[in-house]
Specification:
- Helices cover about 30% and strands about 25% of the residues.
- The chain is built from 7 helices and 12 strands.
């Protein structure tokens, strides 16, 4: 039997969750449950907040227009969070949405936009990113929504880097060696994965990354990938070598 209930609607909420707690919903959530899904009072909903695990709740009306959820029982406890940061050069809207969703599905704990000389998007909509991360977590049974960092220049991100975290640099100019072999020597360090822009890193950026003491450069193979495809490939490799699939 699956560990996940994919048939019951699932919502991310901010308040603390416990047995017999009533969780008020905002207008968007209330509209989604009652007008889009056409749920009635008493119908089940799963809720999570990233701290207290997943809980079963029931729709309840509070007055003519307000909707709340009456929490009844815990369905899954909160597990220890995966400590995997994902750094990326921002893309244009649709592809950035896709990339954020896939990164959440693959277990990242932090989404960190970094601007580079060849970045495609000049501005990053942080609220849109967070909304996409929440939607992906709701749909895929994820218990924790990753934090979303304000955009940083690549140089600033590296200057403030925590030396206890290994930075996996997906370098299109790296030697075509097995990335799994390269990752095998990382050990139990917290990790971050960096994917660059469609135009690649320029020479100065690559030199800076290659010279940084926390960097491990790996190749994703001989094929040229779009940045959103490279994100999925890299995060899957890291999970295979160091994370969920060991």
């Amino acid at each position: 039997m699956s560990r996940y209930d994919f048939r019951t609607p699932r919502l991310y909420v901010a308040p603390a969750l416990d047995r017999d707690v009533s969780v008020p919903l905002d207008k968007g959530q209330a509209n989604y449950l009652t007008n889009v899904l056409r749920l009635d009072p008493g119908d089940p909903v799963l809720v999570f907040n990233g701290r207290d695990g997943e809980w079963r709740a029931q729709v309840q009306r509070e007055g003519r227009k307000s909707v709340a959820l009456a929490v009844t029982e815990q369905t899954r406890p909160q597990h220890a969070p995966c400590d995997l940061h994902y750094l990326f050069a921002p893309l244009k809207h649709a592809r950035l949405d896709y990339m954020v969703q896939k990164a959440v599905e693959l277990g990242v704990s932090r989404l960190q936009p970094v601007t580079t000389r060849h970045s495609q998007a000049a501005r990053v909509n942080i609220e849109r990113m967070r909304a996409n991360a929440i939607e992906a977590a709701e749909q895929c049974g994820v218990l924790r929504v990753p934090t979303v960092g304000e955009p940083l220049k690549l140089e600033a991100a590296l200057a403030a880097w925590n030396p206890r975290r290994k930075l996996i640099f997906c370098d299109e100019a790296a030697d075509l060696a097995s990335p799994l072999a390269a990752l095998s020597g990382v050990g139990d360090m917290p990790l971050a994965v960096l994917i660059g822009p469609e135009g690649g890193f320029d020479g100065a950026e690559r030199t800076l990354l290659r010279g940084h003491p926390s960097t491990l450069a790996i190749s994703l193979g001989p094929r040229i990938m779009r940045a959103d495809t490279a994100a999925v490939a890299a995060l899957a490799l890291v999970n295979a070598a160091l994370g969920d699939w060991r």
